[in-house]
């Protein structure tokens, strides 16, 4: 694809503005509280936008539009799963998390249970989730930027890696938040614009749009119902579980609740986020079926072999071109790049805080704040370098399963332990560790032997485990193990006879 | 008890509503795909109408929860 000067100009403007903001907030990001949580000064609207910016990755826009374009309604199932996680996160986790914690969700576990093992487990689980998420983002970033800007994959990764290191190292949470706010604003504006321009092609009549989409799609009427639910309902339910409950276990999302002043503001910020994400997914329905109606029948967007130019993920970009010309496409391309930068910055900050706060400062009891900040910045650089390296290693791999895996791990390893720590007094340290480790190992292990890796990546004929993702098994398993081990541990303590002096007391 | 904290029963009831609504939607799609793709507004099928209702409902439910929780906290 030809490099678009408008896309490059818009992207440079975005980078320029965010770098100026980073420079301005750098002086205020020298204390632990300002670095990890922007001093708790973020307003509800700002945090709502930032959480939407953190959550809506390029996969949410390009990926869901691509699924709607190829399979129809199945893409909307993904959108619903992503959205339903937010009310659940608010109702079950957000309030106690904000009330008890200070920098990370491990604070809640450490307050209830034995601190050191809880911190180590929470940090390890967080890093696993973050690394899987980062790999998917970096590989997607490299491929997307290569396609949109004509920039070499390696240079694209290095640029993304360097920028995220600069944002996080110098600006901490304040700079990361502003990157996400600006990106979310651009992202939502872009989606509104494409949806309006698409509807305008059909006289603002959604019935006419759907009628054309059904007429031109090879599957016709079948794009209006879910083929995934019909073909493999258990996997569809499992995906819904991973997306709905995984959101409440994503460390970079949970961390955002500490950036606001109090519990009330945290609640209102989730309302803003849910409204932004929900509105965005309503627009994605129009964009997805719009791509079917306008891009699929147009030979200009197809190769000689009949495939979509640049692959299925380019459907939204082609639609932008179809309804708004080169300038609209340039704008959406720049938004795509900004999206990746915002998401990887949030992930890197959460990973750095897991290393410096949970492991270095709390698990290993190093109390020097200056040194903790230094460790945090070193961890940021290390994570940035690791992200670029993993992006290169996984370059030619199909990494689409990695985001689902990150959600499955978050739903299986973090969510059960966090919910039990908040709501069940019977949880013991041994139970929490057993549940967290079981969730992590089972989610990763069953994904490897499941259809996404065993068949699609490793090339075996049939999977050893049938469901993809495995959350329908691994999340209840983690709950059961945490509860079972806690009950056994408590029974053992109760059955142990007290020594004579204690009995006489 | 912390006055800013909401009754846990309300949290569980709201969570149950979300899970039941989304689970019911998926169950309907799995059990009766034909009903799912039936047109209810012209060609616009029940699946799309229900999906849009779920999205708007999730936003409304979140708003209601915030209203209740923040009122109680006063």
Structure report:
- The complex is a heterodimer of chains A (505) and B (74).
- Helices cover 77% and strands 0% of the residues of chain A.
- With 505 residues, chain A is an all-alpha fold.
- Chain A starts with a helix and ends with a helix.
- The model of chain A has no long low-confidence stretch (mean pLDDT 88).
- With 74 residues, chain B is mostly helical.
- Chain B has one domain (8-72).
- Helices cover 74% and strands 7% of the residues of chain B.
- Chain B has helices at 8-31, 33-36, 46-72; strands spanning 39-41, 44-45.
- At the A-B interface, helix 5, helix 9, helix 11 and helix 13 of A face helix 1, helix 2, strand 2 and helix 3 of B.
Give a brief outline of the structure.
Chain A has 505 residues and is mostly helical.
Helices, strands, pairings?
The complex is a heterodimer of chains A (505) and B (74).
Chain A lengths: L4 H22 L5 H6 L6 H12 L2 H14 L2 H27 L5 H7 L2 H35 L3 H48 L5 H11 L10 H5 L1 H14 L4 H4 L8 H32 L20 H49 L5 H25 L7 H23 L5 H20 L2 H5 L15 H25 L4 H5 L1
Helix pairs in contact in A: 1-8, 1-14, 3-8, 3-13, 4-5, 4-13, 4-14, 5-11, 5-13, 6-7, 7-8, 7-14, 7-15, 7-16, 7-17, 8-13, 8-14, 8-15, 9-13, 11-16, 11-19, 13-14, 14-15, 16-17, 16-19, 17-19
Chain B lengths: L7 H24 L1 H4 L2 E3 L2 E2 H27 L2
Antiparallel strand pairs in B: 1-2
Helix pairs in contact in B: 1-3
